[in-house]
TrEMBL record:
Protein's UniProt name: Small-conductance mechanosensitive channel
Location in or out of the cell: Cell membrane
Primary location class: membrane
SUPFAM superfamilies referenced in this protein's UniProt entry, alphabetically: Mechanosensitive channel protein MscS (YggB), C-terminal domain, Mechanosensitive channel protein MscS (YggB), transmembrane region, Sm-like ribonucleoproteins
Keyword Membrane: yes
Keywords, alphabetical: Cell membrane, Membrane, Transmembrane, Transmembrane helix
Membrane protein topology class: Multi-pass membrane protein
Gene3D superfamilies (alphabetical): 1.10.287.1260, 2.30.30.60
Length: 315
């Protein structure tokens, strides 16, 4: 018993133990302080984006302070551990290749303008809105899959940051927060083609004209930044004729988060305008005409009597 007490006393009086205890207490104090700052000050920030960035900044500062604390406390022993760290680092680097690649991806995302929180992206085949960017993974609120268009499906997906080096990164809301979209309207042959075009063009200008000024301004900024030709952002109507109907296409730019809602508004307005045309413009649809099988005249060999027998159509 006395030997155990002496061993415990020697550990407590050891300078290394004192430094470890000091570091633990310091890290706990830093953690409590950062949590207090996040909870007390973040609630006063109204902007969601600013509040998120403030919390991330507080966490980063707290981590840096903890690292500095450990470095300062054990600075007299770091020199003796250099060789050991070098040998261990080589093995760790080989075993944790994916982790290191994710950290490198985080650095690239932070300084390379790949995407930021709030952007709609596609990473590794997963589409969604970026809700958090961590050191190892990017968190997405997924869209699509069993839900049509660009609506949330409720799944939270975490994608390794290393994907930015392996696969293309599709950003729907980066430098140009608009998408070109189009709807196809089939119009019956015999309808007033000119009136149909005028209706579609007027509806597009009425409902989509609000996106044009901002899209033009953004396109001008992109032309200054990139080697890109100026593209038309005005609503445009084109038509082709096929075997069944006249096919009108309405092409337009729309906010990347409002594609589904915009299509709904467009189609409802077009339906109203076509119904109000007095039958001059009508929607086309595929029509199938079923023809009854012809009667087959069969002559019987024995009596020479002929009978009309219908062809069996089957079930």
């Amino acid at each position: 018993m006395e030997g155990a007490m002496n061993l415990l006393r020697s550990w407590l009086l050891n300078p290394v133990f004192e430094k470890i205890a000091f570091v633990i207490i310091g890290i706990v104090a830093i953690s409590i302080l950062t949590r207090f700052i996040r909870q007390s000050l973040a609630g006063r920030i109204e902007s969601m984006d600013s509040r998120y960035r403030f919390r991330k900044l507080v966490n980063l500062i707290g981590t840096l302070v903890a690292v500095i604390l450990v470095t300062v406390v054990f600075s007299d022993r770091l020199g003796n551990l250099t060789v050991a760290f070098g040998v261990a680092g080589a093995g760790i680097a080989f075993a944790l290749q994916e982790v290191i690649a994710s950290i490198a991806g985080w650095v690239a995302i932070s300084f390379g303008n790949f995407y930021s929180v709030g952007d709609r992206v596609q990473l590794g085949g997963i589409s969604g809105d970026v809700i958090d960017i961590g050191v190892f993974r990017t968190t997405l609120m997924e869209t699509g899959q069993w839900v049509k268009a660009d609506l949330y499906n409720g799944r939270i997906v975490r994608v390794a940051n290393s994907f930015v080096f392996k696969e293309p990164v599709f950003n729907y809301s980066g430098d140009f927060p608009f998408l070109w979209d189009e709807i196809i309207v089939p119009v019956k042959y015999g309808s007033d083609c000119r009136l149909a075009r005028d209706i579609l063009q007027s509806v597009a200008n009425e409902l989509l004209g609000g996106f044009v000024p901002e899209a033009k301004k953004t396109m001008t900024d992109m032309i200054k930044k990139y080697r890109i030709e100026e593209a038309s952002v005005e609503p445009m109507v084109t038509v082709i004729a096929n075997d069944n109907w006249m096919e009108f296409t309405v092409r337009y730019v729309v906010d990347y988060k409002r594609r589904r809602a915009t299509k709904d508004i467009l189609f409802n307005r077009i339906l109203e305008m076509f119904d109000g045309s007095g039958g001059r413009v009508s929607f086309a649809s595929a029509t199938f005409h079923l023809v009854e099988a012809p009667v087959l005249n069969v002559k019987l060999a024995q009596g020479g009597e002929s009978r009309n027998m219908p062809i069996d159509k089957g079930p």
